Amino acid sequence: MPYDLNRYDGFAPANFREESPFKIHGGCGLMGICDESGALMSGEVPILAMAVQRDRGNGLGGGFAGYGIYPAFPDHFCFHMMYHDLRAKEEAEAILDRHFLIEVAEPMPTRPVKGITGAPLLWRYFMTPHTHMLEERDVSAEDYVVGVVMLVNSRVDGAFVASSGKNMGAFKGVGYPEEIGHYFRLEEYEGHTWVGHNRFPTNTPGWWGGAHPFTLLDWSIVHNGEISSYGINSRYLEQFGYTCSLGTDTEVAAYLFDLLLRRHKLPVELACKALAAPLWDEIDRMPADAAALMRSLRAVYGPGMLNGPFAIVLGFNGGMVALNDRIKLRPLVAARSGAVIMVASEESAIRTVLPAPDEVWTPKAGEPVIARVAGMEPPFHSQLHASPAEISCAMTAVEAACHAEEVVA
Amino acid sequence: MKPASIAPPAGVIEGYRYVAPAVECDGATVRMDAQGVYFQQLNDAVREEIASGAKLIRLSNVNGQRYIGTGLRVSGVKIEVEGTAGNDLAMFSDGIEIEVFGNGQDGVGNTMSSGRIVVHGDAGDVLGYGMRGGSVYIRGDVGYRVGIHMKAFEKLVPVLVCGGKARDFFGEYMAGGMLVLLGINARDDSQPIAGGFLGAGMHGGVIYVRGSVEPWQCGAEVAIATVGEEHMAELRPVIEDYAKAMGMDAEDILSQPFTRIAPMSHRPYAKLYASM
């Protein structure tokens, strides 16, 4: 009964109400696939890759993100929303309505699936920000959207933004990923890039909003592992206006990539080095200029470093980045088959989708695997060219500081 | 969005089906088609056939099924795997022989006691973890934490030979047995033969590396030495057996000098908590 008003059970921000009633401890599985030629793949592809890795999860979280899936609305921000009840929906919609011109508001297409229960109300909105509100605030559309996402997630009890990018969307919930994919009718979507996740919650609750991927704007993150530095990372992110409110450690990784890549404009390779920093003795063995760069990076982004075991895939509009922690404490396998690049926790997931890959390899710890769709401008800088001074400038995020640096230089 | 599909999919997509594999018997040789069969049904079928006297079991279309050969305590039985063997291949196994025509995933030979595993491909992380006997031969590259916690007791001496290159923590906390790293069948020529933390915390056994390693790559508890004749006497038969299994030329492998890495003390932490 999705419209049962009795579901409203009061304000209890610490209470994750779509949480599963039990907890089991273990690991996770993930995948990412990108056709660099831009050719589109059905949502059945990521489902199949996750179905083979079913035993890596325990049914307490599954999810996907697809890119290029909304060609009819390529320039609208698409919000996938989760509501605990109608009261939360009304409150969140009031916020969305105040900030955006809502072109389409509709329930997410779903179908009943055995094993999927307790779903929140699922809605999606195709919207554009009110131009005058951007002008009044003198902010970019992206910063504006981030602000609204933080506002909804932290202020509206029982409402969560599952995704907020353009021509992309996240489909996630409590269940095995193949069930969640079937529930969201993923076979009706086609994308050039997909990420998928199978959850085995360890330190945080298994609930609909806490399933992976975690997203912000076009970024989506799927993660296997645990981010032991969650506390220091979330405090660091708060200084930049991000509020961590979803109760899963992975949330910080999504916001850190947004901070480093979009706002600080770090080249993606450097951003990965900031998050999975080389060990100090490794830095000591580097050539002098590279060592200086890495020392600056570690000094500046110390509180942003992700400590603990992880394998993550970052999806974006135009490709994906896969990354391991620096001492490889979680599995990650990569492959190329023609124009398709794929990563997964297990080689079997790759071979299910790509039976005869041109090459299969295990990426080195801390070194990203990057896939880019031809003809799509990546949303970040892509060459290792930043000097220590430039990194300091990026951190302050004040252009004037960079100009001053140039004048001084 | 595509328009709603004409025929909606029949149901949830399954990675594996929970059905017994198709089995074909020919005397003591048994063939099984593992295509899409869940690991539990596949391994149950393997155990049943061994109990009925099968000596050679050929598994085709294997892709990611876990625990193949796990916990089997039999001798004179061989399993051939065609495809990618899943995690924990031959874990806790005691006597079984397994040959994989494809790659191994993580945890091959985990805590195995005896027997022989040959992989004609690459293998993943934590290969040979806690091995206490038997031999594991890998043709290509291996991952992180290979041969960690390996141990030996009297005649039970595990041997692990990797034909390609290895990553960090090779032989970490090793307590016994022999690890050999050849660096020949490697995917990437630009990488060093091993990563860092080689033999870190090692206090028993020996590591042979074809070629050399830098001191920074090794843990604080080991010494790097050249290989003498007495060491070649123990290494040569291992290389010859490996070369035979892989169809390689043993003399070719032995044509380059090896480096020997062994612990400086068998009790490196003896004085850490109490003086002796």
Strand order, largest beta sheet of chain B: 1-2-3-4-5-6-7-8-9-10-12-11
The gross shape of chain A turns out to be globular
Within CATH, the superfamily of one domain in chain A carries the name Aminohydrolase, N-terminal nucleophile (Ntn) domain
What CATH calls the topology of one domain in chain A is: Glutamine Phosphoribosylpyrophosphate, subunit 1, domain 1
Pick out the low-confidence regions of chain A.
Answer: 1-16, 21-26, 397-409
Give the helix level of chain B as a range of percent. 10-25%
Tally of contiguous helical segments of chain A: 13
The DSSP helix count of chain B reads 4
Mean pLDDT over the full residue set of chain A: 87
User: Which CATH architecture of the largest domain in chain B is right?
Assistant: 3 Solenoid
**What's the gyration radius of chain A in Å?**
20 Å
Overall pLDDT level of chain B: 94
The name CATH uses for the topology of the largest domain in chain B is Pectate Lyase C-like
- How many distinct domains of chain B? 2
Q: How many runs of DSSP E, i.e. beta strands of chain B?
A: 12
The dominant shape of chain B is: elongated
Span from first to last CA of chain A?
Answer: 66 Å
How would you characterize this protein structure?
- The complex is a heterodimer of chains A (about 400) and B (about 280).
- In chain A, helix 1 runs antiparallel to helix 5 (about 175-185), helix 10 runs parallel beside helix 12 and helix 12 runs antiparallel to helix 13 (about 400-409).
- Chain A contains 13 helices and 18 strands.
- Chain A has a domain at about 20-225 and about 310-380: Aminohydrolase, N-terminal nucleophile (Ntn) domain (Glutamine Phosphoribosylpyrophosphate, subunit 1, domain 1, 4-Layer Sandwich), CATH 3.60.20.10.
- Chain A has helices at about 45-50, 85-100, 130-135, 140-155, 175-185, 230-240, 250-265, 270-275, 280-285, 290-300, 345-355, 390-395, 400-409, and strands at about 30-35, 40, 60-65, 75-85, 100-105, 120-130, 160-165, 170-175, 190, 195-200, 215, 220-225, 310-315, 320-325, 335, 340-345, 360, 370.
- Chain A is globular, with a radius of gyration of 20 Å.
- Chain A has about 400 residues and is an alpha+beta fold.
- The N and C termini of chain A lie far apart (about 65 Å).
- Chain A has a seven-stranded antiparallel beta sheet, with helices on one face.
- Chain B is an alpha/beta fold and about 280 residues long.
- Chain B has two domains: about 15-90, 2-Layer Sandwich (Transcription Regulator spoIIAA), CATH 3.30.750; about 120-265, Pectate Lyase C-like.
- Chain B is built from four helices and twelve strands.
- Chain B has helices at about 40-50, 230-245, 250-255, 270-275, and strands at about 20-25, 30-35, 55-65, 80-85, 95-100, 115-120, 135-140, 160, 175-180, 205-210, 220-225, 260-265.
- Chain B has a twelve-stranded mixed beta sheet with strand order 1-2-3-4-5-6-7-8-9-10-12-11, sandwiched between helices.
- In chain B, strand 2, helix 1 (about 40-50) and strand 3 form a beta-alpha-beta unit.
- Chain B is elongated, with a radius of gyration of 21 Å.
- Chains A and B meet through helix 1, helix 5, helix 11 and strand 17 of A and loops of B.
